[in-house]
Amino acid sequence: RGGWSALEAKQPADAEKLFQTARQLDFPGGDARKVANTGLLRLLFQQKRHAEWVAIYAAEKEKLLDSARSEILYDLGHAQFSLKHWAEAVAGFDQYLAAFSAQDAAVTAAYERFLALTQIDRAKTVSEAEAYLKAWPKSPYRAPVRLLQAQELSREKKFAEALPLWESLAGETGDASWPHQDILLERARAYDELNNFPKAATAYQAY
């Protein structure tokens, strides 16, 4: 367990060497290998070495500590998501959510699962957004989910459905990355497309 001690002491290079050494030890019961594999996965995840994480998980998933199962399944989904392996990310998050939906990290897992699904099939954005918002009504990701939903409705020229979302999103205050000006423009465009020219003119002026 020296690898874990080194990891907790923020000595990742030492921890990795110790984990790799311990992984080669195969005592009866296999506990040393399970402990080392689990520790190595944590280290790789912390360092965002997602491709290595996925490779080791694939080779060693039957030799991991049961006590770390929730962490490993969450990390599986996120590692695949970071690698843009969308279908694999959804599958990983599905495993995590099936067993650990009550955990604090579940709302983030479900959000990344939603984003992965929109990459697989953009046409499902609206229905998947509705499903997400229904399942996670207090999610801190409500605004970006509704933004993607509004963008897809406008792309499909469903402006009557998109407009209430654009109206709501126009009142959101986000960080510097929140596309407030784009939202105001899309709200104005929705009024324009619905032939509500007085409100379109006012909305364009606000933009």
Write the layout of secondary structure elements.
Blueprint: H1 2-8, H2 12-23, H3 31-46, H4 50-60, H5 69-82, H6 86-100, H7 106-120, H8 125-135, H9 142-155, H10 159-170, H11 180-193, H12 197-206
Question: What's the overall geometry?
Answer: elongated
Largest sheet: none
Task: Give start-end ranges of low-pLDDT stretches.
Answer: none
Whole-number average pLDDT? Answer: 94
Instruction: Tell me the series of helices and strands, N- to C-terminal.
Output: HHHHHHHHHHHH
What Rg is obtained from the alpha carbons, in whole angstroms?
23 Å
What's the helix count?
Answer: 12
Classify the beta-strand content into a percent band.
under 5%
Helix content: over 70%
Number of beta strands: 0
N-to-C span = 59 Å
- Which structural class do the helices and strands define? mainly alpha
